[in-house]
Amino acid sequence: MPKDFSPTAGLPQSLCWDLVDNLPDGLCCADAGGSILYANRAFTEMMGRSATDDLIGEAILPLVQTPFSSQVQRFLAERKQSSGALQVRMKQQNRWVQLSWLVTGDEDRAIILVRDLSWYKAKEEELLNLALTDELTGLYNRRGFRLMADQELRHGKRLGASVVLLSIDIDLFKQINDTFGHQEGDRTLKMVATALKHNFRSSDIIGRWGGDEFLVLALDAPQGSVSIMEQRFRVALADAFRQRGLSLRVGVSIGHASGYGESLDSLIEAADRLMYEAKKKPSQQTP
Predict the structure, then answer these.
(1) Torsion angle of C-alpha atoms 183, 189, 194, 199, degrees rounded to 10
(2) Mean pLDDT score across all residues of the chain
(3) How far apart are CA 158 and CA 225, in angstroms?
(4) Mean pLDDT across the stretch 127-137?
(5) Any idea which architecture 13-121 has in CATH?
(6) Statement: residue 122 has pLDDT above 70
(7) Which of 211, 219, 221 has the alpha carbon at shortest distance from 275?
(8) By the 8 A CB rule, do 164 and 229 touch?
(9) Can you tell me the distance from the alpha carbon of 116 to that of 129, in angstroms, rounded to the nearest whole number?
(10) Which secondary-structure segment (H or E) carries 42?
(11) Has residue 4 got a pLDDT over 60?
(12) Which entry of 134, 169, 204, 212 is annotated as an active-site residue?
């Protein structure tokens, strides 16, 4: 316990320190330069240290991940009576925390409350994934695909990179549902999704646009590679069914659009037009 730091007047000092040291949230006191004068048990554990003394005299800033350093620096530079909060990521265990501070009348010190947000951030990410992901296939849903594709198209436009969009539709999917049942239809959708994930690059954006239609956006893909991409996917899809020992063979119709700087809607419209033209031809079953 530092001799010149007292948390709360009016209570026995030993009781004050017991309360502060056993708070469920982390708490520390820092000087104007951001060096730690005091840290309670919870803060010590959050920082991955076994003893509070390991933190005394250490600077707060190096404990924070680099992208958040400037925010913490601005806070530490404010030496007036104020309060506030910000969310940052610590280096220890990649942990999200909320820093709430109170710069007291003594402008040379700040009391900082540190609340662990890791659980809340994990739940937030889980909810976001649910909002952007198709529950059946695990691919992006329409909302998620549009969000990621629009971002990638803006990036590609700045770089002057070409893009290719594939529109893939399962042939006679209604007949699969009507003949074999919706369970078999769901299994078919999952198989197609798995083949897409295994066949295309991790940088490509893959989504279930709706029903039995899938979209793939490939950035910086040469136009001449489209036929290769299509054939490789058909082979991958056939292999997926064979490996499962399924007698059912599924045909897919594929349309594509490519170019520089086009909007997502214009690419989808062009690719869909070619895909529906392909559907009018004899079914192209997987090899």
Answers:
(1) 150
(2) 84
(3) 22
(4) 87
(5) 2-Layer Sandwich (3.30)
(6) yes
(7) 211
(8) yes
(9) 22
(10) helix 41-46
(11) no
(12) 212
Report the share of the chain in percent with pLDDT over 90: 36
- 54, β-bridge pairs: none
**For 180-215, what is each residue's pLDDT tens digit?**
888 989 989 999 999 999 888 888 999 999 999 999
Candidates 153, 133, 152, 130; CA nearest to 142 is 133
In the chain, domain spans: 13-121, 133-279
Which residues have CB under 8 Å from 32's CB, separation 6+?
A: 76, 79, 107, 108, 109
If you write DSSP's letter for every residue of 155-191 in order, what string do you get?
HHHHHT--EEEEEEEETTHHHHHHHH-HHHHHHHHHH
Q: Looking at residue 84, what is its pLDDT?
A: 67
CA 159 – CA 152 distance, rounded (Å): 11
Contact 207, 166 (CB under 8 A): no
DSSP 7-28: S-TTS-HHHHHHHHHT-SSEEE
CA gyration radius for the chain?
A: 28
Q: Is 186 a catalytic residue?
A: no
Instruction: Identify the CATH homologous superfamily for domain 133-279.
Output: Reverse transcriptase/Diguanylate cyclase domain (3.30.70.270)
7 confidence band (pLDDT: 50, 70, 90):
very low
- Per-residue model confidence as pLDDT tens digits over 35-84: 999 999 999 999 999 888 889 999 999 999 988 888 888 877 765 555 66
Q: Measured at the alpha carbon of residue 39, what is the angle toward residues 16 and 20, in degrees to the nearest 5?
A: 20
Q: Do domains 13-121 and 133-279 have the same CATH topology?
A: no
Higher pLDDT, 240 or 131: 131
Half-sphere exposure of 287 (CA within 13 A, CB side): 8
Tokens of 185: 């239809």
